Amino acid sequence: MTAQEASSKVSALGIPISQVIPFVAMTKMIADHMIKSHTSTARVTILEEMDVEAFVALRSSLNDRSQKSEGVKISYTHLFIKAIAQALRSHPIMNSTLTEAEIQILDEINIGMAVALPNGNLIVPVVHNADKKSLLEIARRAIDVQERAKIGKLMLDDVRKGTFTLTNVGVLPESRWTTPIINQPQCAILGTGAIRQTPVVRNGQIVIGWVASMSLTFDHRIVSGLPASLFLQTFANLLKEPDRIELGI
Asked: From the candidates 38, 91, 128, 220, which is the catalytic residue?
């Protein structure tokens, strides 16, 4: 439909329409999935600001080394995936799904990562067995599926069997908080905000430090607030003391 044809139509609000965007099959499928998650889960979101001073320094060091030796750029997302997978090993209830009869704790840790497509839609390719992969293996997999997602070359296996999802809204420098919708039938999703410098208190002194905002949305039917908070605390501790992250390199 041309702009002229659109402008001749009037919306249900009685306002002329300037543009019409077709509600195509993929968009409708994503919308239906989001509505199902929104209406069928008992969603709770925990917001936490985390100290990432050492994490930022580690990423910078790792990125310098990996680009020189492997030609691979290490992003914060790659490190987040590794830290999430390690935290899930310590809190397996967060890596679960719910049926009508039981809560099933899953034997694989497969981290989905939300990727924005050129048309504005989202798709969630998966890093399978992320807890068993090295950081470089995670980086290579993540880079590969992100690139193929943007040109429509993902395979069905690339988006199947996710057990936990990461959505990084921090790609926009001022984005801090989100209330992400659970990617059913998973238990939880973690939204990571922008990593930024801000005044913080250390040893009784106000200094400039690196912090990041995190949003964990979980299904309260599966897990209560305490286990979810303990998972988030384990994740926060890994970012604060990143030498504890099992990088495999």
From this structure: 220
Residue 200 has phi, psi (to 5 degrees) of -135, 160
> How many CB atoms lie under 10 A from the CB of residue 133?
20
215 forms beta bridges with 47, 191
SS3 173: coil
Q: Does pTM surpass 0.85? A: yes
- Local confidence pLDDT in tens for the 249 residues of the chain: 454 454 568 888 888 888 887 766 555 666 665 666 666 677 899 999 999 999 999 999 998 888 878 889 999 999 999 999 999 999 999 999 999 899 999 999 999 999 988 777 788 999 999 999 999 999 999 999 999 998 989 999 999 999 999 998 866 667 777 888 898 899 999 999 999 999 999 889 999 999 999 999 999 999 999 999 999 999 999 999 999 999 987
Active site includes 220? yes
Q: What structural domains and CATH numbers belong to the chain?
A: 1-40 (no CATH), 42-244 (3.30.559.10)
